[in-house]
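Case study.
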Amino acid sequence: MIQALRGTRDILPEDVGYWQLIEQTAREIFTRAVYSEIRVPIFEQTSLFERGIGEATDIVGKEMYTFKDRGDRLITLRPEGTAGVVRSYISNKLHAQGVQRLWYSGPMFRYERPQAGRQRQFHQIGLELLGSGSPRADVEAIAIATDILQAIGLSNLQLDINSVGRGEDRQKYREALIAYLEPYKEELDQDSRDRLTRNPLRILDSKDQKTQEIAQDAPQLVEYLSDSSKKHFDTVLQLLTDLDIKYQINHCLVRGLDYYTHTAFEIQSADLGAQATVCGGGRYDGLVGELGGPETQAIGWAIGMERLVLLLQKLQESPTAKPDFYLVSRGAMAEAQGLVLAQKLRNAGFTVELDLSGSAFGKQFKRGDRSGAAACLVLGDAEAEKQTVNLKWLASGEQQAIAQSELLAMTEELKTKLSL
RNA sequence: GCGAGCGUAGCCAAGUGGUUAAGGCAGUGGAUUGUGGUUCCACCAUUCGUGGGUUCGAUUCCCAUCGUUCGCCCCA
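After joint prediction, the assembly is written out as follows.
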């Protein structure tokens, strides 16, 4: 048997309702803030991600799906959305049109060990706001994220926020941190020792007891922030308070992608396992310039769809569509008329499920009942002969014979009855 | 990339080194050849993820492999 590749998953009809709920909610909220959808390619030149995300990051170093195509081009399946959107912003000179408010959704690919809430092909909805350095831009972006999460019914979420400063601030801090930690090298846990040169900021977040103690007295990133960066951060926090968005400052919060500057944030759920982050993002004022565009200030985030679905599954049954009518028919003439009637009702705006089995009426009713339909439409030889149809409301059992033409003429009445 | 657990039907599962692998849900057919939600009956795994080994004999023990779950790492 051919099985789906490791870390990929089929989203089956029984679950697709969750996905549609999330997508629809996000779309509405984006639209209200006048964000436009952008659709960019799923694969790009490998160098885009190397330059954008950073050569030293885990994502680029060991998680990308990279291959050569038949034309010998080095290609990578996108591991995240921002680099592609920024590339498009530059290629299409969108910067010439002022501030760009964009959103996207779709699959991303990372070669990781799968576990709950982590797959190799996973899906994100993301926002990118390009062309503004205002703290209000940061807060608008964050507010849209919290609105979406709230609108789909999630609570018990926590917003962690930090400022990672400008690239050069962070570089200076990084050096100071390494200088501080170096003497303790032997006392650090194995993971942290490995991170010392690669990603020292993450050491502050280590779960190891001893490492925690050492990290207590380490220099703090805030001390290295420029005055303007501090001011920006303070304003962001003030604006969040104005919007009544609760947050927690987390000085250890750093993001794994090199392009972040100033504001960095994560939204986590306590109801997930180790993969608790449902939304992550931040400001990336250097990226557009880095990739060959004009210096442009920007902020963005991405939501992990699979993780949201996991949370929703705990909260509610999968939203499924129930038909208004279930059409029961038996006999050649009746079945032909039934198909025509079903189509006409559908065109009039009703959802109609057509029983194709040709089995006994009893069986068809049983299936009709299970479909959750409000009513059955029954067509047998007798009805076909007279061009009528029996309308049976399943809740009450009440049944009436109606001319087919009349049924189609009473759509308003039916819609009222179905509360459509 | 590292550590640990798991893998019996579409789903949930019981089971044992020995001729025929419980049960439930779902599905299909029938009781009821024109009327559902209840009930009853029948059917539904030559096979226990896959490959190899040990054994007279393995779904059961061992190894490998694939998948999955949890944690580390990383991240959405």
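Observations recorded in class. Residues 325-417 of chain A form a domain with the Rossmann fold fold (CATH 3.40.50.800). The longest strand of chain A covers residues 100-109. We will return to this complex in the next lecture.
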